[in-house]
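Page 47, continued from p. 46.
Same chain as before, 380 aa.
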Amino acid sequence: MSQRSQACDILRRTRGFTLIELLAVVAILSVLVALIMPAVQQARESARRAQCLNNLKQLGIALQAYETSFQLYPPSIIRQQDGNPPPPSIPFAALRYRGHWTGFHLLLSYLDQKSVYDKYDFNGTWLSPLTNANDHTCWPLNQTTLPTLICPSAVHSVIAIGGDSAGPGVHWMAGSPTDYSFNHGVDIIRALPGDDAGCTTGILDYWRQAPESIRGPFGYNSDCRPQAVRDGLSHTIMLGEKAGGRLNYGGWNASFPHLGVEFPWAMAAVEYFAPTGDAGVSGSAWVVGPIAVTHDFRLPLCPESPPGTGNPFPINPTPRELPSSTDERPFYSFQSMHSSGANFLFGDGSAKFLNESMNQGVLQALSTIAGTEFLDEGAY
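Result:
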């Protein structure tokens, strides 16, 4: 047989894929990918959740080290006495210069951040010395990213909140986000002290003023010691997830920009929703302090109101897209980017995942230090 005949015979015997066979292969591969991808994504989220739990355990170690050094836990927010010294004569000075520091400032040395801690002048405030509004040394320090405070599942629109820390246009609310917040128990979140309509005795602002039954382990100028946690350290939440980047907020009315919400670790102002720049500018975000509650007594309710009154703050509140509104409650719930719940640090150093569908009364009981509630661990 000639070489040409052999070649023709080979070509006749060689057969390619038909279109139907090719489509069948593609369909099979698509099904395999569809089956594998959820498992891969689930494995990745499981790893992220484990890292988040580890972050909380590291915070537990830091809290224990602080307590060993000072025989108490740090306050979540340190506030100066109102008007002592008088604030500088600048806009919003009474608010801007009342707050001193957050508990995270005080924990820096125990989070392998002593070099940052040493740069702060703790005789002043988180913004400046008490009497020099032009000293902005703290502003870029407050933008320091602390890896232990970032949950890997959270998606942050900005990390350097408030603009470029190296430039002259840094906003006074500049900061870096945290996804973990101090537990205030059952509390009313307020920036300004004083009496309120409907409250004969006024709203209680400081930790020691609040009834023990509703206190969390943290509060404004709190000085909680382990022995004060009479409900038991293993039954008391210390910190929990409050993930930045989860909520978007439209401000009080349509004149405000619609931006993502972040919770800077260094933000010592208790309640101040301020975009850290104009909408569209790098670092723009609404910012709220790193504190959370499980229930509150809202006006016209007062501290002496009967137990059970007020408004619950559940885990992972919805909706996540908040229109223009003066309702501030979603900012102060524990919340995460994990599906169906959030991670929490307990007083004994353990970290646990709590389901968002858990009984609200149980969540509230876990948030107080001396509510004397009986809790079966099977309930959470």
